[in-house]
Amino acid sequence: MKISERVVLKFPKELVDKPTISNLVKKYDIEFNILQAQVLPQKEGLMVIVFTGEENVVKHVLKELRSQNIALQRLKQDIVKDDKICTHCGVCIGLCPTNAFYYDSSTRKVVFDYEKCITCMLCVKGCMVRAIKIKF
To answer: Domain 78-134 falls in which CATH fold?
Structure first.
C-alpha cells in the first residue's frame, strides 16, 4: 500500500553537506517533496519533507535516516491547534498560503486541514492567543 509520511529531519552539522536524500532516492526509488529547509554548511540543518512510496519502503527510509543520527519527528505529532483556547478569529486563515485553515460556516469555527499544511509556521507566529503550536 502506498503511503505518504511528513517528517521533520534535524541534520547534525557533519551531515549537512552530504547527499543524504539523493542517496535514499537512488537506493529505495522513493518520491519526496521538500516543504521547507534550512540547511547551512557547518551548522545544524532542519528540513520538512514528505516521503511517498510503498509502506515498507517508507519505513526503511525512516529507519535508515535514524541510523545516520538524523533526528526525525513525524509532523502529525508536532502540529497542535488547541480548540479550547482558539477564539476562531480567522487570522490564521489570512496567513496560510495553502488554505490549510478555513472557516466552516455550519459550525462557525476555524478548521485545520493537516493534509494541506506545509509547515511554514506563519500561523504559529500570527496566532495571538497561541492556540497553534509546533513542537519539535
So the answer is: Alpha-Beta Plaits (3.30.70)
Average pLDDT over residues 88-101: 92
* β-strand pairing of 31-38 with 79-81: unpaired
pLDDT in tens, 11-55: 888 888 889 999 999 999 999 998 888 877 778 888 889 999 999
Angle between helices 20-28 and 55-67 (to 10 degrees): 150
3-state SS class at 32: strand
Any residues with CB less than 8 A from the CB of 90 and at least 6 apart, and which?
Answer: 103, 110
pTM score: 0.63
CATH of 2-76, one of 3.30.1490.270, 3.40.50.150, 3.40.50.300, 3.30.70.260: 3.30.70.260
The answer to whether 91 touches 131, Cβ cutoff 8 Å, is no
